[in-house]
């Protein structure tokens, strides 16, 4: 049909009002280039598909997409040698906004073999151009034999013009005349950065400034059987050039009940949660969408790095945000399962290697066990506990290791732990004298992990090694004999209370081993946990409550016996202060003027 020249109005559907598309549909104006390049890729994929089906017998030629910047003319042009359009198709796909050419194409050819990666909503994507352009031209020639080239032009209103065009080759040129308020996009480096961000892995070559900027067959599209470790490490360096090599990786390749490919890397992570989040890139048929993948990937795996690509992840119409959908939940569940299976496989096949990596991967595992009960059930068989000697145990192994010596009078096993081996060394050494084992739980998530273990493990208590006197940490119902009478104990308690004069101290005289300190000060496990939760932003009411410490006077220590017999009240007070400050020092609670006074008293004792 000859093109005689035509003017008209773009057909606006009520749900897709043009000004909304132009101004508000896309939150980030740079998206225009992603959409136009994606459309050009679609057109290239379509002609390739038609050729494979025998419905196009001409030469395919070079199917690259070219982006051209003309700073003098203030234009950006996106060109392809794809399927092209007739004037009638322009009216159908461009003027009737929201009619998706890609959708119609896939529907037409869905029963003729594998889908050829058709990306998206051409009509809507095209109109993103008007966020940055005051005028847009389409010059196109359809692949159909005898098709007449056509030119479409609009200046950002509902008015358009279609005329014949001078174009010899099959394909489409989209020419954007950049508006005054969008001159930032007339910068070569700006265009380069946008193409690198969104088009780095598009399946058709993208040429800009004389060179191809993309890898058309990225690693995740290949078969794992064809790849070596060095391939995965090289790709990781491409994604994260400043990062250390990852610990290991998982190659995802699922085609039922949804399509999902990708590579997830386990980076080296210790106690820096916030530095490692939001590093997974989400693609849809090799088009970069976002690195906000919290709905696709479970929270605890947000620490992973890598790429996920799925055409089945539902996006809103601008492809900027994920939408709630059953497929998202299925993909989330599948990724969790794959990660769990991979960790279990590593544990079974190379226990020593797994232990060597555990300081890093333990963060992922504990995060998952805290936040996901199903993952806890899977991970409880390979999650490891590490003691202060550097030995690793599964939960069951550790229970067997300590239950003979660390079972209390109620038949509950007590796991002792330290969250700061340096500061709590005296308490650790005291425990070791009783042949008690002490776990090292000093990670950023371990306070929450401890609570999870207490909920899940039957007849098991976890107590910090400095939470009580050694005999009360694991109460076996054995009462130590005291060298003091009840009257002497009462006198001691009253003397200490009067001297220390602190209503937040719960003072008691106890029969402790002779090798314990003369005075032991502890913060009860319950109170300490409430204090930690308050510090972390939860249980705020406990942050306002006064902290009450337990002060145990060791009735069997020689210094306490000396205090009891001391007749000089000044000397008695000095010895009480010295023994109490020593207890504070052992808990890293002595500072300032009190620490200075303690040092002076200690020096006086040497004179």
Automatic annotation (TrEMBL):
Keyword Cytoplasm: yes
Cytoplasm among keywords: yes
CDD domains, per database record: HATPase_Hsp90-like
InterPro entries xrefs: HATPase_C_sf, HATPase_dom, Heat_shock_protein_90_CS, HSP90_C, Hsp90_fam, Hsp90_N, Ribosomal_Su5_D2-typ_SF
Pfam families: HATPase_c_3, HSP90
Superkingdom classification of source: Bacteria
Residue positions binding ATP: 35, 39, 80, 85, 100-101, 172, 319
Keywords of the record: ATP-binding, Chaperone, Cytoplasm, Nucleotide-binding, Stress response
Any one Gene Ontology molecular-function term assigned to this protein's record: ATP binding
PROSITE patterns cross-referenced by the UniProt entry: HSP90
Segments forming domain Histidine kinase/HSP90-like ATPase: 28-168
NCBIfam families: PRK05218.1
Family note: Belongs to the heat shock protein 90 family.
Stated name of the protein: Chaperone protein HtpG
Organism of provenance: Rhodocytophaga rosea
């Amino acid at each position: 049909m000859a093109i005689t020249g035509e003017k008209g109005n773009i057909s606006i559907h009520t749900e897709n009002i043009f000004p909304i598309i132009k101004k508000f549909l896309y939150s980030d104006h740079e998206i225009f280039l992603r959409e136009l390049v994606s459309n050009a890729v679609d057109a290239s994929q379509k002609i390739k598909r038609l050729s494979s089906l025998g419905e196009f017998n001409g030469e395919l030629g070079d199917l690259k997409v070219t982006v051209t910047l003309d700073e003098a003319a203030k234009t950006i042009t996106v060109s392809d040698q794809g399927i092209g359009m007739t004037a009638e198709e322009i009216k159908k796909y461009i003027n009737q906004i929201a009619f998706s050419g890609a959708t119609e194409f896939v529907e037409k050819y869905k029963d003729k073999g594998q889908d050829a990666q058709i990306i998206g909503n051409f009509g809507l994507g095209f109109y993103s151009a008007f966020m940055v352009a005051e005028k847009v031209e389409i010059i196109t020639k359809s692949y159909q034999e005898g098709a007449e080239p056509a030119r479409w032009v609009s200046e950002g209103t509902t008015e358009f013009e279609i005329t014949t065009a001078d174009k010899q080759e099959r394909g489409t040129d989209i020419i954007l005349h950049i508006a005054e308020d969008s001159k930032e996009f007339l910068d070569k480096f700006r265009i380069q950065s946008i193409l690198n961000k969104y088009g780095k892995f598009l399946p058709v070559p993208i040429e800009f400034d004389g060179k191809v900027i993309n890898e058309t067959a990225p690693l995740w599209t290949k078969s794992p059987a064809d790849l070596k470790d060095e391939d995965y490490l090289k790709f990781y360096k491409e994604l994260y050039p400043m990062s250390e090599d990852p610990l290991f990786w998982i190659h995802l390749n699922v085609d039922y009940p949804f399509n999902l490919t990708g590579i997830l890397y386990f980076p080296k992570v210790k106690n820096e949660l916030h530095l490692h989040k939001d590093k997974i890139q989400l693609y849809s048929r090799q088009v970069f969408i976002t690195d906000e993948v919290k709905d696709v990937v479970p929270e605890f795996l947000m620490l992973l790095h890598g790429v996920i690509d799925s055409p089945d992840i539902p996006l809103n119409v601008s492809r900027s945000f994920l939408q709630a959908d059953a497929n998202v939940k299925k993909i989330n569940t599948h990724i969790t399962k794959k990660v769990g299976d991979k960790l279990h496989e590593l544990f079974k096949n190379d226990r020593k290697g797994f232990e060597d990596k555990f300081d890093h991967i333990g963060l992922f595992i504990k995060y998952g066990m805290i936040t996901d009960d199903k993952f806890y059930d899977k991970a409880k068989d390979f999650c490891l506990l590490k003691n202060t000697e550097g030995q690793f145990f599964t939960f069951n192994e550790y229970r067997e290791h300590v239950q003979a010596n660390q079972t209390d009078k109620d038949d509950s096993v007590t796991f002792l732990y330290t969250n700061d081996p340096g500061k709590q060394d005296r308490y650790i050494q005291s425990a070791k004298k009783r042949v008690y084992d002490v776990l090292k739980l000093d990670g950023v998530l371990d306070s929450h992990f401890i609570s999870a273990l207490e909920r899940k493990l039957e007849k098991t208590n976890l107590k910090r090694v400095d939470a009580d006197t050694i005999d009360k940490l694991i109460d076996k119902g054995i009462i130590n004999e005291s060298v003091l009478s009840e009257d002497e104990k009462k006198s001691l308690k009253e003397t200490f209370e009067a001297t220390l004069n602190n209503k937040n101290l719960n003072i008691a005289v106890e029969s402790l081993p002779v090798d314990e300190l003369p005075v032991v000060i502890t913060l009860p496990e319950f109170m300490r946990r409430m204090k930690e939760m308050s510090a972390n932003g939860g249980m705020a009411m406990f942050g306002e409550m006064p902290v009450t410490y337990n002060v145990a006077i060791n009735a069997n220590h020689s210094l306490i016996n000396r205090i009891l017999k001391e007749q000089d009240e000044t000397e008695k007070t000095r010895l009480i202060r010295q023994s109490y400050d020593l207890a504070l020092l052992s808990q890293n609670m002595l500072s300032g003027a009190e620490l200075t006074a303690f040092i002076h008293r200690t020096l006086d004792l040497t004179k």
